[in-house]
């Protein structure tokens, strides 16, 4: 929902005199003649500016703006100039629109909890809550407010509503499963709305009577169209469309039509608010050849800038703006100092340069990347278990542009998971083939898979060629509202030669058995199903996920530690693929199959950045060490952590307890070599913990290896306490599920109950055996 910095126009607004169209682009508000030509910037840095709205008299524009990461509102003259901040608050304030008399601004804010629409009086600064909802639009006569609000029992952001101002009744004009894009606009006669519909799986402009009725599609095209704005006479409307990259601004007659009837509003030149120049940059690999990379570029005004046609993005965790390059790029920037930094995944040292750009001049630089570690030379290959390419972003992400992101991040294996959000397919049906995408090379493989989104966890199906359907379960108001077991999906992946694992497992600490009651993960592993577990993932809490991981390992389960980002690669406010990744040690050439085999063997570590190596008595993660009953000597452990991101400490973990904590005196390297007692057997792993930094696009530095397993006298050590905890958690899961589920048939209820009871019995048996072995 939040506004975006873009290299194409967004959120067009037609001026009251019909001469201009305002829009946001490159962090500023611009206006351009309706017929196209020179775009004139009305704002400048250091803030970012979005969502222009003309005042009724055409003398000013309201906007949202990003001030040091906080979204507020502002006003600027229609001739350009300084921005006056209004409605200032630490909470999010966006989507301003004017009252009909020009005396107030309606806007969307989070200051009252769920998003609500407030009214800001310009005369005295008073703010008054009007109604819960988003996307406000004031009727031409000022008597009614259109907006989008949640509809109880329905999916999506809500229905198109109308409220009589100031305190009159509300009515619903139209409902569909929308996702933040509806943006209704009254036609100038007040008789109808233009709005964005997602019916049919693509965003397009439709119109509907203000009194309600049947909507009619106006833009007929397979690509996405956003933000309609009618001309003052109602004869045309402006909108933006994406096809293969940034949005393009168009106008079309009020009846709409196919692309052949649209008129592009060309931006032939740009006139920024302040003097500008250009930088021309090349990024080289260690051999001196241009190489794809991620770029942080900050201009003299403190803002991020991006080449024309590129995808401008921001890392939510750090608010650092970035883009990807194929190796050479040019960018228009404000005159003055420009700081540029190039990244290429976790295995190269970042390269930086500072330039001074003269007004009208061109500054040229080369950035030379050097290797930190050559992981493939050691047989280690990075991959991501959980990437999405298309998820309702407004940038027209093609396969080619997506693949360039992966190469720039030096991600060797990318599993892009097609899934369903609500009832909307996120991805392309035809991408799942069971083979690497045609763009793949021997070193960078893109393969599509599936994400099953159940009510009690999400499962990645990797290496499959056919979908296991349905995509979802536990989705209220659909035919798939009943909770389902994960087992058919895991077994479906295995039947195709693939693997299945668990994504972003826990996002909060599990302090009691009831905390496990929302996840089927302990059930699946107890029943012998599941190949990996993402200890590192953007939406989850690494330490919370790790704590549950330890409990399961302590019952004798053997589970590969992995990492998967869960990013949306076409959404501007999201980190890049490979933010959380899995490193796998493989034998022979790289392929998806060899990489999956390495996960099956648990020769892995998951990471948000640090590179982590573990050797226990000559064995690597996933291996087993067999000791006799009399073999009491400690085991020699070697661990090494190397990172481009600062680290706090390297830790050696035995059976869930930290037995060695080695401070990272050099914040980019930490090592341990020493004897570690494992008197009872069990497992040994290594992990790294570190702070947030610009070199980590998750919230903090973290890495964790799969364990080396230690068996004594043919028996693996287990913990009765952890087994009892998991047994109680599984029991709580069944109780919670049965109380809430609307089972279709007794047979389906019994199948679910039987599986859960088998898992509970597994943990109870482990607890009894552990207690018995502990007795003298």
Describe the protein's architecture and organization.
The chain has 776 residues and is mainly beta. The protein has 3 domains: 10-271, Neuraminidase (6 Propeller); 276-371, Carboxypeptidase-like, regulatory domain (Immunoglobulin-like), CATH 2.60.40.1120; 382-607, TIM Barrel, CATH 3.20.20. Helix content is 12%, strand content 40%. It is built from 7 helices and 56 strands. The strands form 11 sheets. The protein has an 18-stranded mixed β-sheet that branches. It has a 5-stranded mixed β-sheet with strand order 1-2-3-4-25, with no helix packed on it. Helix 6 packs antiparallel against helix 7 (746-774). It is globular and about 90 Å long.
CATH fold descriptor of the largest domain:
Neuraminidase
Q: Provide the CATH top-level class of the largest domain.
A: Mainly Beta
| Count of extended strands | 56
Query: How many domains is the backbone divided into?
Result: 3
Summary, kept brief:
Helices cover 12% and strands 40% of the residues. It has 776 residues and is mostly beta strands. The strands form 11 sheets. It has an 18-stranded mixed beta sheet that branches. A 5-stranded mixed beta sheet has the order 1-2-3-4-25, with no helix packed on it.
Comma- or semicolon-separated keywords:
56 strands, five-stranded mixed beta sheet, TIM Barrel, mainly beta, 3 domains, Neuraminidase, 776 residues
């Amino acid at each position: 929902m939040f506004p975006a910095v873009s290299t194409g126009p967004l959120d067009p607004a037609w001026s009251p005199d019909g001469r201009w169209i305002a829009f946001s682009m490159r962090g500023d508000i611009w206006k351009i003649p309706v017929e196209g030509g020179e775009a004139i910037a009305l704002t400048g840095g250091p803030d970012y500016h979005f969502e222009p709205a003309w005042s009724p008299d055409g003398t000013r524009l309201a906007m949202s703006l990003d001030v040091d990461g906080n979204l507020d509102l502002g006003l600027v003259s229609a001739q350009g100039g300084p921005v006056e901040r209004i409605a200032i608050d630490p909470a999010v304030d966006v989507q301003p629109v004017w009252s009909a008399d020009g005396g107030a601004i309606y806007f969307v804010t989070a200051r009252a909890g769920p998003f609500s629409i407030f009214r800001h009086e310009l005369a005295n600064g008073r703010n008054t809550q009007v109604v819960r909802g988003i996307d406000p639009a004031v009727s031409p006569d000022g008597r009614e407010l259109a907006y989008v609000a949640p509809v109880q029992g329905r999916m999506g952001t809500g229905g198109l509503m109308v409220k009589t101002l100031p305190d009159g009744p509300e009515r619903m004009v139209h409902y569909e499963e929308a996702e933040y894009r509806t943006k209704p606009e009254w036609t100038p006669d007040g008789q109808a709305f233009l709005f964005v519909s997602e019916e049919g799986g693509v965003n397009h402009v439709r119109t509907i009577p203000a009194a309600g009725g049947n909507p009619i599609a106006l833009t007929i095209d397979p690509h996405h169209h956003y933000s309609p704005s009618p001309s003052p006479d109602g004869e045309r409307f402006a909108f933006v469309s994406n096809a293969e990259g940034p949005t393009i601004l168009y106008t079309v007659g009020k009846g709409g039509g196919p692309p052949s009837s649209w008129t592009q509003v060309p931006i032939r030149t740009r006139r920024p608010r302040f003097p500008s120049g250009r930088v021309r940059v090349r990024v080289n690999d260690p051999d001196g050849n241009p190489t794809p990379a991620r770029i942080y570029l900050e201009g003299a005004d403190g803002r991020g800038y991006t080449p024309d046609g590129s995808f401008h993005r921001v890392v939510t965790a750090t608010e650092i703006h970035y883009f990807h390059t194929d190796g050479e790029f040019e960018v228009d920037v404000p005159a003055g100092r420009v700081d540029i930094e190039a990244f290429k995944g976790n295995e190269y040292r970042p390269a930086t340069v500072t330039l001074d750009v003269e007004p009208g001049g061109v500054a040229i630089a080369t950035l030379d990347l050097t290797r930190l570690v050559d992981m493939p030379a050691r047989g280690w290959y990075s991959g991501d278990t959980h990437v999405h390419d298309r998820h309702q972003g407004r940038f027209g992400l093609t396969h080619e542009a997506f693949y360039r992101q992966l190469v720039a991040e030096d991600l060797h294996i990318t599993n892009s998971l097609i899934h369903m959000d609500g009832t909307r397919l996120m991805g392309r049906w035809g991408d799942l083939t069971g083979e690497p995408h045609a763009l793949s090379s021997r070193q960078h493989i893109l393969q599509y898979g599936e994400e099953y989104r159940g009510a009690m966890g999400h499962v990645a199906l990797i290496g499959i060629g056919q979908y296991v359907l349905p995509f979802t379960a536990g989705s209220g108001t659909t035919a798939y509202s009943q909770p389902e077991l994960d087992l058919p999906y895991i077994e479906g992946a295995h039947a195709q030669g693939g693997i299945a694992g668990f994504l972003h497992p826990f996002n909060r600490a599990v302090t009691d058995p009831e905390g496990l009651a929302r996840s089927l993960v302990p059930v699946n592993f107890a029943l012998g199903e599941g190949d990996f577990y993402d200890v590192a993932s953007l939406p989850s809490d690494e330490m919370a996920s790790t704590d549950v991981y330890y409990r399961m390992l302590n019952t004798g389960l053997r589970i590969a530690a992995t990492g998967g980002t869960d990013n949306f690669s076409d959404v501007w406010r999201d980190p890049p693929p490979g933010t959380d990744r899995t490193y796998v040690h493989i034998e022979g050439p790289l392929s998806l199959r060899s990489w999956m085999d390495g996960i099956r063997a648990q020769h892995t570590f998951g990471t948000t950045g640090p590179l982590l190596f573990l050797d226990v008595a000559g064995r690597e993660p996933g291996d087993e060490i067999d000791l006799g009953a009399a073999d009491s000597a400690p085991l020699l452990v070697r661990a090494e952590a190397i990172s481009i991101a600062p680290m706090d400490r390297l830790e050696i973990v035995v059976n869930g307890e930290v037995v060695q904590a080695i401070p990272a005196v050099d914040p980019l390297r930490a090592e341990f070599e020493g004897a570690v007692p494992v008197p009872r057997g069990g497992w040994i792993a290594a992990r790294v913990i570190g702070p947030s930094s610009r070199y980590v696009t998750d919230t903090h530095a973290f890495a964790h290896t799969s364990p080396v397993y230690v068996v004594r006298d043919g028996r693996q050590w287990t913990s009765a306490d952890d087994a009892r905890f998991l047994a109680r958690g599984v029991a709580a899961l069944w109780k919670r599920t049965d109380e809430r589920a609307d089972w279709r048939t007794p047979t389906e209820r019994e199948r679910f109950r039987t599986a859960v009871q088998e898992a509970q019995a597994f943990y109870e048996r482990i607890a009894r055996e552990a207690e018995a072995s502990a007795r003298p």
